[in-house]
Amino acid sequence: MKRPVAIILRCAGTNCDLETANAFAMAGAKPELTHINAIKSGAVKILDADIFVIPGGFSYGDDVAAGRILANELKLMLRDLKTFIRSGRPVLGICNGFQVLVKTGLLPQTKTEAQHASFAANDSNRFEARWTRLRINTHSNCLFTKNLPEMIELPVAHAEGKFVVRTPKVLEDLKRTNSIVLRYVNEAGEPAGYPHNPNGSVYNIAAVSNPEGNVLGIMPHPERFIMRYHHPNWTRQTFHKEGIGLEMFRNAVTHVQN
Amino acid sequence: MPTETLTPPSLTIKNAAAKELVEMSRLHGWSLSADEMAAIQAHFKKAGREPTRAEVETIAQTWSEHCKHKTFTSAVRFSDGKKQIRFKNLLKETVFAATEKLKKPWCLSVFRDNAGVVAFDDEWAAAFKVETHNHPCAIEPYGGAATGVGGVIRDVLGVGLGAKPIFGTDVFCLCPPDYAGPLPDDVNHPRRTFSGVVEGVRDYGNRMGIPTVGGAIWFDPEFRFNPLVFCGTVGLMPRWAVEKSVSPGDLIVAMGGATGRDGLHGATFSSAALDDSSSPAAVQIGHAIAEKRVLDVLLQARDARLYRGVTDCGAGGFSSAVGELAADCGARVALENAKLKASDLEPWEIWLSESQERMVLAVPPKSLKALEALAAAEDVELCVLGQFTATGRLQVTFKGAPVVDLDMGFLHDGLPKKERTAVWQARPQNGSRKASGPSDAAKLRRALGDLIGHWNVCSREWVIRQYDHEVQGGSIIKALQGTHADGPGDAAVVWPHAATGRTDDYRALAVGHGLNPNYGRIDPYAMAMNAADEALRNLVCVGADITRAAFLDNFCWGNPEDPKVLGALVRAALGCRDAALAFHVPFISGKDSLYNEYLDSKGERHNIPGTLLISAIAPVHDFRRAVTMDFKAPNDPLYLLGWTSDELGGSLYAEWCGRPLDGRVPEVEAGSALEHMRALSAAIARSLVASCHDLSEGGLAVAAAEMAFSGSFGACLDLDEVNRSKEVDSDEVVLFSESPSRFLIEVPEDKERDFLKAMKGQPLKRIGSTLANPVLRVVSMDGTTLFEEGLDALKSRWRDRMPEAMTGARPSDGGKL
Question: Which structural domains are found in chain B, ordered by start?
Answer without folding.
Answer: 18-70 (1.10.8)
